[in-house]
Amino acid sequence: MHKTHHLNHRQALVYGATLLPVNTFFKLYLRDQERAQQKVNRRQGMMGDQAVKNSSPS
Questions:
Q1: Are 27 and 19 spatial neighbours (Cβ–Cβ below 8 Å)?
Q2: What are phi and psi of 24, to 5 degrees?
Q3: Closest Cα partner for 27 from 35, 16, 37, 39?
């Protein structure tokens, strides 16, 4: 007798086939969010550099 919480082979394949695209989507989504945040951080860094240049006496 097998434990009730185990999936049979077919159920495991269906679960895996469902989980893989969801996992891939979230990985790509999070990578995209990180890249967007890096762009924002770089822009803010540039703006900070410009503010320092503008405020320093020449």
A1: no
A2: -60, -45
A3: 35
Buried b (16+ CB within 10 A) or exposed e, 17-30: eeeeeeeeeeeeee
And the tokens for 57?
Answer: 């006496």
Output the six-digit token pair for 51: 């503010």
State the pTM of this model: 0.56
Sign of the torsion angle spanned by Cα atoms 42, 48, 50, 52: negative
> What's CA 58's distance to the chain center, in Å?
43
List, for residues 15-58, the tens digit of each pLDDT value: 999 999 999 999 999 999 999 999 999 888 877 766 556 665 65
For tokens 């086939």, name the residue: 17
